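2024-03-11 09:14:02 INFO receiving multi-entity request
2024-03-11 09:14:02 INFO entity count = two
2024-03-11 09:14:03 INFO echoing inputs for audit
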Amino acid sequence: MEGDVKSRITKKSLKLSKRNLIIAVAVFILLLIMPQFLSAYLNGVAVRVMIYILLVASMNIVNGYTGQFTVGQMGFANVGAYVTAIMMTNYEISFWIAVVVSGLAASLMGALVSYPARKLSGLYLAAVTLGFSEILRVIALNWISVTGGAMGIAGIPVPEIFGFRLSTPLSTFYMVFAFIVIMLICNYCVISSKVGRAWISIRENEEAAKSLGINTYRYKSLGFIYGGFWAGIAGAVMAVFYRFIDSNMFSMADNFDVLAMMIIGGQGTLFGPIVGSTLVIGSLEAFRFTAAYRGIIFGGVIIFMMWVRPQGILGKSTKDGPIKMFYNKLVSRSKANRKGGTA
Amino acid sequence: MTAAFIFEQLINGLSQGSIFALFAIGYALIVGVVGMATLCHGEVIMIGGFMAFFTISLSWIPTNIIVMALICFIVPALVGIVIHIICYEKFLDSPRHISLVCTIGMSILLINLAQIVFGTQTQGVRTNQVIQPRSFEVFGVFIGMIEITIFIVVIVLCILLALFLNKTKYGVVLKAVSQNRKAAALMGVNVKRATMVGSLLGCGIAGIGGMLFALYYSSISPLIGPPVMIRAFSATVLGGMSDISMSALGGIVIGVMENFGIAFAGSAMRDIFAFMFLILVLLFLPEGLRLGGGRRRGR
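2024-03-11 09:21:47 INFO inference complete, emitting structure
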């Protein structure tokens, strides 16, 4: 029976079909070429979209696969950003070391938050994770000797690779693009591994997972730790892209934006975060000309998406197709008949 | 650290906590009756606060606390109906996170709309025109008229709500829907209308809370929403979600904790005392303050 569940999970939610693979490769090549023809402004927008992809995907690990309800991903990004900024400006450590360290620091924070969080679910968990993120923000705002307080940290150096300075949006684009590709491959491997299957089983039915001998506390913690790592890396990228960070960049509203992007894209899907953040940031940028009315349109787009496609763009449809529905009707009718016959 | 100082902080905390209690009562009503968490509660409170501002500053509205409370109840309640139709009604049977995201969109929309309609700057609310700036000395501690007004309004409102929920037929209907929506529907309750009344009441009470908030701080801005919403949310979680009286208690506890926290650790950290307290409570009491049994609706 376990094998049956295993094969069903891998087949339904993970397998890349041949068509999807071709599309993915085509998009990959397109994305490699595209930035060369875009203006610096559009490349900057693309980098912002990709930073959000990292964040949304890290939230998607916890919310989409583990089935928990965390809102505080910006807190991990906060830690990552400050670790990178402090390491690079104060100690002149290379970005490539700083990015890994900030990912690990955010993982540590994930482990910390998972301690109270693993016992909670639903809105209680949302409150704790959101609270954790806010606590980190307020600490960053008030620990002036380390984080610069409200002034933030300015003049973060440009990352270098083989003597080549990644200073323009174009070069940053390729750097973040590489991070995203690495992340997607990692996510794919983790989710199709034993850990990922444990996560999905916790999402589907926590009690059943427990009864099958899965240590749910440990796997939930692992989800927070792994998700926190990529959120930390997103924060590190934010630090070197904006060259300036302050605690306002990691506010509660940003947490909610990330949540909205994840659900609009479709949670529990590998490519949902990409679609969600592209659509949300893209629509925000596209309506820039409306100035003061932009926020209204942004809110309207979120509500509209929920009305039209509540499961997210890439999410599986909750309604069955017409054939399945017909089949269900037949089965239920024959069952009812059988019951009526025996009674 | 004299006794008078502690007593003063306690009074401050209680008056602030009573305002938070109103927010939390509204929140718990929505979570209980509609069954949905909301993230645009702060914006409803903000609209209530602006209604208080307009009752004072517009000359053709009589500046009287009862008229003001009525206006501050009705307008947010109407907003509540709009929120209900857009964010909850269609998704009553869908997973919860869908309507939650809808309320995120609604909150962004309302903040930006308020910035366009009410203006972006912080508005001063002339509290003195409604409540006389007098204070009474009790045991060497001064208690202002505003604090007394807050206590009276909150207590009266709580009594009215308790009477409504326990003694009237519609109140019982709301409680039935909050306990089991399907069973209530089978008993012939119009669930759609009951949930709408629930969110109407919740938003209206939050609006009166917003009025008291604006009067207490003598200022209101379109951006007060999120930090205020957080306190309502924390208080409700503390009360075990959907339990109205416990949520009110949670609000008072958070108000008192926050004031003592500010008194002892400085106001820079004011936004996180509620959270720190909440995390500590949830570490040891995962069900919130509600120690007894009962079904948990937080999932």
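2024-03-11 09:21:48 INFO post-check: Chain B touches chain A through 48 residues (CB under 8 Å).
2024-03-11 09:21:48 INFO post-check: The mean pLDDT of chain B is 85.
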